[in-house]
Amino acid sequence: MDKKITVALAGNPNTGKTTIFNALTGARQHVGNWPGVTVEKREGNREHKGAAIHVVDLPGVYSLTAYSLDELIARRFILEEKPDLVANIIDASNLERNLYLTTQLLEMGIPVVLVLNMMDMARSRGLQIDPEKLSTLLGVPVVPCIASRGEGIDAVMDTIVSVAAEHKPGVSLNYGREVEHAISTIEELLQNRPLPHKATPRWTAIKLLEDDEDMIEGHDEIAQDAAISEARMKSLAHLSNVYGDEAETVIADARYGFISGLMKDAVRKPATQRVSMSDRIDRVVLNRWLGIPIFLAVLYGLFQLAFTVSIPFMDWIDAGFGWLAERAIGVEGWFGALLRDGIIGGLGSVLVFVPVIFLLYIALSILEDCGYMARAAFVMDRLMHKIGLHGRSFVPMMLGFGCNVPAIMATRTIENPKDRLVTILVNPLMSCGARLPVYALLAGAFFTAHQGLVVFSMYAIGIVLAILLAWIFRKRLVRGESGHFVMELPPYRMPTIKGVALHTWERGRSFLVRAGTIIFSIVIVIWALDYSGALEPIGRVIAPIFAPTGFGQWQSAVTLVFGILAKEVVVGTFGTLLGTGEAGIGAALGSQLGWTPLIAYAFMVMTLIYVPCMATIAVTRRETGSWKWTFFMIGYTLVLGWILATLIFQIGRLFGG
Amino acid sequence: MLKQILDRLRDSNEPVNLADLSRELGVARSALDGMLMQLVRQGKLREVLQAPGEDCGHCSGCASGHGSPIEVKAYEVIT
Questions:
Q1: Which domains are present in chain B?
Q2: What phi and psi, each to the nearest 5 degrees, are found at residue A267?
């Protein structure tokens, strides 16, 4: 016999596991006890296509928690004995319930074959299961069978032999940004150390977050390690704050969300089945034709709301800086100039946009927490699949609306390296919060009546370009098959004030920290260079490059160069160079630099596309591990930004803009 | 979904049975049964026995285990 394969049969009680075990092993069975416990252990052998298959029947369980002995036995066997694969026996007529165990088997990182038993019963209940789709989405083979009639047993055997040869695990579940962050924090601490039951660091991290008794009480070396314990407690407190529930419930909910997405994609239920409120809303927001227009309308409404509501708050802050500027008039010499043009003009013009940024983040947090953002990603996923891209790519792209740095880090959830690289390369095209002050400033000054629409157009251009370029890169630069995945669809729920506040603060805080540190420092340096007269000659050397775009003035050139350090600096630099606060920048751009609405729009497009900020460049280098792809990103964004800005300005001029 | 179940049961002054919960939340009974079991194990819910209503669907939640619905399982939040 060439090959020896150990296969564990796992499944819920009453799924026909025993029937399948008998069909697989015939009369060659051995009954013993599980080590240490008096629970029956059945084993059997079979030869198939030159392979000696050893089948171990695990106790029937609904999940793999530490709540019951049966579940502990099943999971310890899988972890410690490391069978070549697990054949997960599923009652196809109760698919939704049975898939919960499947999600836990996938988490263990072991190869799985899904055996859809009782297909006849599923059909009689009107369920239309698409095994191929299910297989693609779970990343494991799916074999339909009717074990009671012996139908499909040969196919199960064939699949067991081929899967054992490949030894490829299925998909890895994504638990959402907050939980994934907590998992990776603990996972990092668990690297390079012996883990209980020879488990993987990720699985152990999940169990620690789930407060798994076996892991916490049975393994002091892990649970009582100071660093792990601190990270765990901190993560549990954070998750509880954000979700208003224990991490265990949040993780279980994410698994049910995954199953819900899976069922929507791969199973058709009888029309008479009662639909929930979530299903009713989904029928509209996930509609093939309405889904994308609704998503765009939601985005548009979000910007309109943020800009309309923030106006009085921005006016108050502006008035505050105006009052400070008046007091600074009396201060003479270089320090007076630093106060007026550097700190008040530069930093003040950035801080004025705090209200609009926070309002936008509040709105985004509400959409995320109520469950709509997952739907938006689902809708875009469908579109992206049509053009041959990985659907999971859109999740990090959506995160890019906040900041491109965590968004690029979130691409770690994409298993296919080619899909991941393309997603990283196009991520800077998703307009981050740091670019918002530039749009808000220019839209407010040059497009007063339509500022919400103009800002919305920047985000829309970013999304369209990202999808278009991802498609081009996938076809021309990084060819290869794209992966599939299941979009988790959590039920809609009312966002909590605490959750929204926390998410908003997490995003907004980085803006304030950057304003007080990086932006403040850069604005001072720019002021010093300008005050000493060193800035203008540099700007005049670069400016001709931007002449075809309409913003070929040295001040604009300098602004774009410093904008590479941090995008918010663009506004601050204008404030410093034009010697005015936020309220005066728009007028000064018109009177001092001759800007028109057309030039302002071209400049906004340039700011959207050209070279991402230093932090994004650094994280791109780290995540791709390649300077080649990092420089490619810098190069293509610069060229693309310049070409589009030039086209907008030149074509706009033809139409009298 | 677990949060929805908990919210629904917290809003209710009396235990809610599987059939009613399934109907209200639009989740298949077998799937919902698994979720409820999870919450019971976590110590968030407890099972209680309830006399069946008129529209008891003879579901798997029947506590008698003999196919005749004498009492059905219902759930309430542990406070």
A1: 2-77 (1.10.10.10)
A2: -135, 135
